[in-house]
């Protein structure tokens, strides 16, 4: 069942239940508060009629009673045996004989006040002789009992039609209005549902023109924002898969080619060694790529648990020693100023940050250039700066450098090999430790990466 149909049924049931509750409430109000007042009002009218009838000569009584009946009252006149009726007739003339005798004896019959409570028909509309006022009258020297009540059907005949038509009109107009409102409410939700279903097939161009300033409007705005982000994420994911597939396929193709060359007869030992070195280099590329992918996956689900005090100066010194061969291979001058500093964190993940940053500095430095590394500490923060004087990045590349699936212009970087994950991994690890990472770069002027971490006392 659709939301539109549910809304209609809910509104209809609400109207039905509300009507029933209102009906019961009005019955209760009448029986508890209005019935006795209605009894007293009709009693005063009946006593006035009786006083007037007592003063009339016998030949005028019947015509007077007919006039009263035509004026909108039901009259039941009896001397205990004979009965005369004027105005509308009672639907039910059942009454205890002792009540008639009490009125003949001069008592008052408060039938409206004492009429039994009923759930579905209020006493006001019960056209029964028991639901009337009885007063004694003397006509021609003989005692009579006069029972009286307003003729509701005669008095309110036009009002019945008026209020009946009004009630039907209110119900119909309310129902039509509810259908219109339901349509206006459900239509944008239907559009959102269709757009969401299309997103499952990676279709992000479904038009969604919902201009509202209520909760549905805010929902539509948030949906558009979410869809835009998902679309960007999907595009980056596809680019990432393409790039990683290329980075995996390229060394695999190279390895296969040189393995084929190694199988050829008559190859010199120097060529074999050269081919083996190339295979070893491409294998190292594959190993680095898989390591970065595994690190990225571990960072995504990492939580800052089981933390330890990490000596950053020792980590950086060990990383520089480990990468010494890379610096020597490009004849890079290294300047390192490492002040003892400690932070609370995951030593393995932080080690990954320093390896990525220093590897990038070596990779994008010119042959014979230099790299500066510094570690300083203020009262509450630690600053790690890695600066190279290599090819640098454009403003647009700097803006996207930390995005997980971003890779710089391959033509400008002269085919430098990499997965484009290093800075993304570093950023996520640093933020996991409550720090931040900043990047300053310009083409031809090199790149400066600054890591800021919360300081901790040494053990």
Automatic annotation (TrEMBL):
It is a multi-pass membrane protein. The chain crosses the membrane at residues 7-30, 159-182. One of its GO terms (cellular component) is plasma membrane. Its EC number is 2.7.13.3. It catalyses: ATP + protein L-histidine = ADP + protein N-phospho-L-histidine. This is Heme sensor protein HssS. It is an enzyme of class 2 (transferase). GO terms for molecular function: ATP binding; phosphorelay sensor kinase activity. Residues 183-235 form the HAMP domain. Gene3D superfamilies: 1.10.287.130, 6.10.340.10, Histidine kinase-like ATPase, C-terminal domain. It is found in: Cell membrane. Keywords: ATP-binding, Cell membrane, Kinase, Membrane, Nucleotide-binding, Phosphoprotein, Transferase, Transmembrane, Transmembrane helix, Two-component regulatory system, Virulence. It comes from the Bacteria. Member of the two-component regulatory system HssS/HssR involved in intracellular heme homeostasis and tempering of staphylococcal virulence. HssS functions as a heme sensor histidine kinase which is autophosphorylated at a histidine residue and transfers its phosphate group to an aspartate residue of HssR. HssR/HssS activates the expression of hrtAB, an efflux pump, in response to extracellular heme, hemin, hemoglobin or blood. Residues 243-457 form the Histidine kinase domain. The lineage of its organism: Bacteria, Bacillati, Bacillota, Bacilli, Bacillales. Its main location: membrane. CDD domains: HAMP, HATPase, HisKA.
């Amino acid at each position: 069942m659709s939301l539109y149909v549910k809304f209609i049924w809910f509104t209809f049931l609400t109207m039905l239940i509300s009507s029933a509750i209102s009906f019961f409430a009005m019955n209760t109000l009448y029986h508890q508060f209005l019935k006795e007042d209605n009894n007293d009002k009709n009693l005063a009218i009946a006593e006035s009629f009786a006083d007037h009838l007592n003063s009339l000569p016998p030949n005028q009584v019947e015509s007077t009673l007919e006039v009263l009946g035509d004026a909108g009252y039901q009259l039941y006149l009896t001397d205990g045996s004979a009965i005369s009726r004027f105005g509308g007739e009672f639907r039910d003339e059942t009454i205890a004989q002792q009540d008639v005798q009490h009125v003949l004896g001069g008592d008052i019959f408060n039938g409206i006040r004492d009429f039994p409570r009923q759930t579905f028909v209020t006493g006001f509309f019960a056209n029964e002789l028991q639901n009337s006022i009885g007063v004694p009258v003397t006509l021609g020297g003989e005692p009579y009992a006069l029972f009286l009540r307003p003729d509701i059907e005669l008095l309110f005949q036009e009002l019945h039609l008026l209020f009946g038509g009004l009630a039907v009109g209110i119900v119909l107009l309310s129902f039509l209005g509810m259908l219109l409102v339901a349509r206006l409410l459900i239509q944008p939700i239907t559009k959102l549902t269709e757009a969401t279903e299309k997103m499952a097939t990676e279709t992000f161009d479904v038009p969604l023109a919902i201009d509202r300033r209520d909760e549905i409007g805010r929902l539509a705005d948030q949906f558009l924002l979410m869809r835009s982000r998902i679309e960007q994420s999907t595009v980056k994911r596809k680019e990432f898969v393409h790039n990683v597939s290329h980075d995996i396929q390229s060394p695999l193709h190279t390895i296969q080619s040189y393995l084929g060359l190694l199988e050829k007869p008559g190859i010199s030992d120097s060529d074999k060694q050269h081919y083996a070195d190339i295979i070893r280099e491409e294998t190292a590329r594959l190993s680095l790529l898989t390591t970065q992918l595994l690190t990225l996956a571990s960072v995504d689900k990492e939580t800052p648990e089981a933390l330890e005090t990490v000596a950053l100066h020792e980590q950086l010194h060990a990383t520089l020693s480990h990468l010494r061969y890379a610096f020597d291979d490009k004849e890079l001058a290294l300047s390192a100023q490492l002040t003892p500093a400690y932070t609370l964190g995951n030593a393995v993940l932080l080690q990954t940050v320093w390896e990525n940053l220093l590897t990038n500095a070596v990779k994008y430095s010119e042959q014979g250039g230099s790299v500066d590394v510094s570690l300083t500490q203020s009262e509450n923060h630690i600053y790690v700066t890695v600066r190279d004087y290599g090819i640098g990045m454009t403003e647009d590349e700097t803006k996207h450098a930390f995005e997980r699936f971003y890779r710089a212009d391959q033509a400008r970087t002269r085919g430098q090999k990499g997965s484009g994950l290093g800075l993304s991994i570093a950023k996520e690890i640093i933020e996991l430790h409550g720090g931040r990472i900043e990047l300053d770069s310009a083409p031809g002027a090199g790149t400066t990466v600054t890591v800021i971490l919360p300081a901790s006392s040494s053990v």
